[in-house]
């Protein structure tokens, strides 16, 4: 009897809340205006923006889960006068969409990032990642330390969460997950953004529409399932972080309810060459809520790092 009732519930929810994919071409017209570019890599058309001064130090920006390169707009505006700024939609997100191998491991992302930056003839760079992008960034620092000038982790993933987000838990349910992941009405996206922003006034209709549209890009929700099902052990995070000698900035929103500030302190303790800066009046996305304050902290950090490196050469 119970399986029948569950099946009826799922069917009714599907009928009411099911949201179809949005064709990529429709989204290109809306979200790929200049200076957007595309690179063919690993069977994907990787969406990226390469801005600023080509002869200046490079800053590479990696977004988090369910996000896109647009999350860095505030930082890109502030950085491009003095730096070359590269941001991209990671595989499984935004206009780039899923990869053909359905591989979303740290090793895959690091290999992909290495190939992407090599294609742009970038060898040395300041690497910045938010949330999932932070997890990718610090794993990349473990695998390719020779390429990093500095590492910046913004509200980064890395340690087990006491209460994983509801959608993450539901996505691990056998049989039901394929249905549930396609039940993503617009109000659910708005609610999700409210839960990670401290200043919810910033969550306006245009922001909700952007997150909603890009989440529904063909293949992205299936990629979300593949990524959630990828076995990731976080128990060895401290041991991995201890090997990172790259100078690191840990930047955290003071009011992050998704990955709390206690995780920031753990990163500071486990990374041997790190500095912690808390951003007031910000939640999980300090670069969107407080672009000026958070980017200023980052620029001060990398300038100090450059000064120390130059002093060491003299």
Short key terms for the protein model shown above:
Rossmann fold; 314 residues; globular; disordered N terminus; 14 helices; alpha/beta; 16% strand
The low-confidence parts are: 1-8
CATH topology-level fold name of the domain at 32-163 and 233-313: Rossmann fold
Query: How many H/I helical runs?
Result: 14
Give the tally of β-strands: 8
Mean pLDDT: 89
CATH class of the domain at 32-163 and 233-313: Alpha Beta
Derived from helix and strand composition plus strand pairing, the structural class reads alpha/beta
- The CATH superfamily label of the domain at 32-163 and 233-313 reads Alpha/Beta hydrolase fold, catalytic domain
Distance between the termini: 77 Å
Major sheet: size, sense and barrel closure? Answer: 8 strands, mixed
Order of strands side by side in the largest beta sheet?
A: 1-2-4-3-5-6-7-8
């Amino acid at each position: 009897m119970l399986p029948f009732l569950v099946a009826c519930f799922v069917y009714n929810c599907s009928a009411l809340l099911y949201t179809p994919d949005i064709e990529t071409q429709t989204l290109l017209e809306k979200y790929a205006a200049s200076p957007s570019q595309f690179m063919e890599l690993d069977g994907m058309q990787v969406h990226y923006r390469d801005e600023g001064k080509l002869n200046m130090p490079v800053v590479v920006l990696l977004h988090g889960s369910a996000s896109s390169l647009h999350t860095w707009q505030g930082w890109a505006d502030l950085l491009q006068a003095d730096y070359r700024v590269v941001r991209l939609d990671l595989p499984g997100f935004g206009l780039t969409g899923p990869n053909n191998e359905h591989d979303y491991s740290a090793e895959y992302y690091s290999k992909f990032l290495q190939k992407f930056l090599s294609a742009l003839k970038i060898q040395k760079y300041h690497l910045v990642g938010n949330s999932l992008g932070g997890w990718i960034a610090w794993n990349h620092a473990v695998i390719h330390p020779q390429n990093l000038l500095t590492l910046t982790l913004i509200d980064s993933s890395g340690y087990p969460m006491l209460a994983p987000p509801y959608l993450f838990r539901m996505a691990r349910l056998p049989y039901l997950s394929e249905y549930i992941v396609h039940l993503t009405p617009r109000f659910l996206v708005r609610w999700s953004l409210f839960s990670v922003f401290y200043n919810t006034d910033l969550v306006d209709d245009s922001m909700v529409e952007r997150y909603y549209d890009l989440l529904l890009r063909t293949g992205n929700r299936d990629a979300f399932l593949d990524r959630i099902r990828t076995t990731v052990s976080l128990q060895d995070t401290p041991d991995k972080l201890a090997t990172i000698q790259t100078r690191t900035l840990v930047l955290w929103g003071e009011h992050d309810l998704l990955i709390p500030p206690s995780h920031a302190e753990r990163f500071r303790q486990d990374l041997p060459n790190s500095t912690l800066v808390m951003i007031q009046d910000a939640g999980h996305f300090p670069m969107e809520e407080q672009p000026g304050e958070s980017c200023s902290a980052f620029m001060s950090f990398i300038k100090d790092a450059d000064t120390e490196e130059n002093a060491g050469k003299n």
